[in-house]
Amino acid sequence: QVIEGSYFTARDCDQVDFNQDALICIDSEGIISRIVNHDDPKFGEVRRQAEAQNILTRLSDSQYILPGLIDLHVHAPQWAQAGLALDRPLNEWLNTYTFPLEAKFSDVNFARRVYSQLIMELLANGTTTVMFFGTIFNESNLLLAKQCAQLGLRGYIGKVAMDNPDQTPEYYRDLSAKQALLNTEEFIFAIQELQSKVGGTLVPVITPRFVPSCTDDLLAGLGRLAHKYDLPIQSHCSESDWEHGYAMARFKMTDAQVLDHFGLLTERSVMAHTTMLDHDDVDLFKARGTAIAHCPISNAFFGNAVLPTKRILKNGNKVGLGTDISGGYSPSLYRNMQQAVMASQMLEDGVDQTIVADHRGVTDSRISIKNAFYLATLGGAKALHLNAGAIKVGCKADMQVINKRTSLIETQADDIFEQLIYQTERSDIKQVFIGGTLVYQN
Ligand code: GUN
Ligand code: FE
């Protein structure tokens, strides 16, 4: 099929390209096979052919195409409690709200209701690829995968592994490291089998919940499984003073060093939050090729610090964006792009020293809205080694069509882009395509 319209796409961390009234040609595999610019002499001919074959979709002048967004960190079961109990510190929130909720996912009927609603909500917010934490229960994890396949979402899905009796409740933990590893392996095979039947993108992910939840045997075993099956890994790293202090007390190492010690920092790893990383940890992440899932809304509640995103990007680390449902209350990566910029501005130093606060932050911390857009698209794609996140020949045709509000003043492409990212609400997202297939229509 061929889509005629104007689009924005990130070229790199700092630059966003605009292409007005182009033809985006999508092949039968769901890949963007050709882009014909408006001033290309072939434009008229390609357009006529597409029209004759009845495969042309023409957008209106107030509509814009953006790549589908990539959410690197979602706890699928926690959708049921999004927006609850965010006044509690992380450890208390886990024990009093989160673990009791996740334990309910032994009931697949409950899981079915929560997961189907969540996936629709993510699609409606323009998200086309998600890295999910499931629960410890494989039956509901597999259901999550099936629902991703049914609704078309690209899903990277992990069976949560957590066996440490000191830090997990008896009613919600893997019985032993051995059992957790067997169940993880069983889940890997089940997803691989499902993927071979249904196609799309379904990838099993090695998922130690976080260092405190796991025994040494489990961390070591999961590192071996990731290596054996060449799989992505996800976890939390250095989120909160509490987690940071816990790793120091138990291992006399930073959280990042512990994960590395067990073979869990690889070029396919995605670590959420990382607000408390020190300079050596950031360099370690870079050396291993490990990506960071920046979760700016969640970090405002549980992170105990603002992630110095600018410095980490300048260092050359891989970074993408995550909603962290339900540490983050919103399923929208638009809201997280906005919060990423706002948090970075608050980290920035003030120049005016005449008021009482004589030290207001860190200079050169601000990120731009273009940087944030990069994180939510190409940055996420790089973290997952997925050929998506851009409107470009050879990329998967994952796209969203946005209805832009009418501008009351004259605007250039950069202005239109900025307003789109700050102002787009769920109701402005008209269509979402994954691999060229329409998966959501508003
Ligand atoms: N650390 C361990 N588990 C969790 C979780 O579910 N959410 C967040 N934000 N941090 C965690
Ligand atoms: Fe999380």
Automatic annotation (TrEMBL):
Its pathway is:
Purine metabolism; guanine degradation; xanthine from guanine: step 1/1
Q: What are the Amidohydrolase-related domain coordinates in residue numbering?
A: 64-439
Cofactor: how bound = Binds 1 zinc ion per subunit.
User: What keywords is this UniProt entry annotated with?
Assistant: Hydrolase, Metal-binding, Zinc
GO biological process terms, semicolon-separated: guanine catabolic process
What does the UniProt function comment say about this protein? Catalyzes the hydrolytic deamination of guanine, producing xanthine and ammonia.
NCBIfam families xrefs: guan_deamin (TIGR02967)
- Family, per entry: Belongs to the metallo-dependent hydrolases superfamily. ATZ/TRZ family.
Write the protein's name.
Guanine deaminase
